[in-house]
Amino acid sequence: MSTEIISRVKEYLGEDFPVRLISQGAEALVFETNQHPFNPEVKTEEFIIKYRPFKNYRHPQIDKTLTKKRTVAECRCLVKLNNMKGINVPHLVASDPYNGYIWQTKIGEQLPNGTFSSLKNFLWLHNNDKDAYLSTVEEVLIKVGKQIGILHNNQYIHGDLTSSNIVLQRDANTGIWDAYLIDFGLSGYSTMVEDKGVDLYVLERAIMSTHSLYADKYNEWIMQGYKESFDNQDNLKQVLKRFEEVRQRGRKRSMLG
Ligand SMILES: Nc1ncnc2c1ncn2[C@@H]1O[C@H](COP(=O)(O)OP(=O)(O)OP(=O)(O)O)[C@@H](O)[C@H]1O
């Protein structure tokens, strides 16, 4: 199946177009390339191509409509976020919603152990070097919280806030890590505190399940950054109240199995 999809992508981009498959999720295949979609002069950047393939379990017409709708929604969100002050996200480069393609700038780099610099891998890397890296981890997690806070303050929600969808990249001048959010397939405009509470809960659970040893400290730092990014304390209070309610619902659900 995936070989067939990859040949379709090759056919679409051209046989000689250099792409490398880096991820295959439920919804999309993600490739990386160093070639710009339409400007061969751009030589210094790397790009991500996200492709939503045809799903043969869906009626072809419904599939086309859904693919187009989801691709357009993700692009719209990226464009909005590209113009939002203070938020770190990939730049939208090009898109072909009819065929399910989105091109965006690549975020991230290799960590010293050779893994990709997602927050998840970063925390794994520093899991055993607690003392030496604690302040770096604290700084990074406060920045992560700030990014989520800025997003929520602008009435946007992420919708799939896991530690794999947060990517770290060093500032080119200072060498200091910055936090970026990626994957806006389930994101959108929302004024509802419930959606924001769920975003926070999903990330809290993700941190607890993959980095259980220091999860409490990590979540505390994320929430410190989140709180610092709010100007309006009433809004913050409402979100935090709902976050607690979402947590309690989650606890009840897991007790009931
Ligand atoms: N702009 C980007 N820069 C760097 N890596 C990226 C970028 N976009 C996606 N990736 C990589 O590809 C992976 C999958 O991308 P994304 O989450 O957008 O697709 P998805 O199909 O929604 O995946 P999943 O089903 O796993 O959530 C990411 O976890 C990340 O490793």
TrEMBL record:
It is found in: Chromosome, Telomere; Cytoplasm; Nucleus. It catalyses: L-threonyl-[protein] + ATP = O-phospho-L-threonyl-[protein] + ADP + H(+); L-seryl-[protein] + ATP = O-phospho-L-seryl-[protein] + ADP + H(+). InterPro entries: Bud32 (IPR022495), Kinase-like_dom_sf (IPR011009), Prot_kinase_dom (IPR000719), Tyr_kinase_AS (IPR008266). Its EC number is 2.7.11.1. Keywords: Activator, ATP-binding, Chromosome, Cytoplasm, Hydrolase, Kinase, Nucleotide-binding, Nucleus, Phosphoprotein, Serine/threonine-protein kinase, Telomere, Transcription, Transcription regulation, Transferase, tRNA processing. GO terms for biological process: tRNA processing; tRNA threonylcarbamoyladenosine metabolic process. One of its GO terms (molecular function) is hydrolase activity. Component of the EKC/KEOPS complex composed of at least BUD32, CGI121, GON7, KAE1 and PCC1; the whole complex dimerizes. This is EKC/KEOPS complex subunit BUD32. It comes from Hanseniaspora uvarum (Yeast).
